[in-house]
Amino acid sequence: MLTVLLALLAGIAIGYAKIIPEKYSFLTGYVTWLGLFVLLLTMGVKVGSDEKVLANIGQLGIKAFILAFFSIIFSILCLFLLEKYYFNGQGNKNKAGEST
To answer: Which residues of 16-45 are buried (b: 16+ CB within 10 A; e: fewer)?
Structure first.
């Protein structure tokens, strides 16, 4: 966990110090997507190779569905409430005042 926290803090420091030139900032989205893809792939390999998990997939499946369902619902609810009460329903505005 300490490694994850240190990596996050290093990323914040790099972003704050503007070490990466502005013209390459678009790459952060691609790197994030690639990292997420690799993470999901390796998790799938780990689950697929674990015989205990595969034997109990039915029981684990319903628990995983419930956890994922409520995580999504409450994430959407939190975003809705943040936008409504914190951002005053303005959404994401660019310099010209147009929604993006």
So the answer is: eeeeeeeeeeeeeeeeeeeeeeeeeeeeee
**Spans in the chain with pLDDT lower than 50:** none
Residues 67, 53: Cα–Cα separation, whole Å: 17
State the Cα–Cα distance between residues 21 and 15, nearest whole angstrom. Answer: 10
Q: Which of 71, 44, 41, 72 is nearest to 57 (CA)?
A: 44
Quick: pLDDT tens for 13-37: 988 898 888 888 788 888 889 999 9
At 23, the amino acid letter reads K
3-state secondary structure labels for all residues of 34-88? HHHHHHHHHHHHHHHHCHHHHHCHHHHHHHHHHHHHHHHHHHHHHHHHHHHHHCC
Q: What is the pTM of this model?
A: 0.50
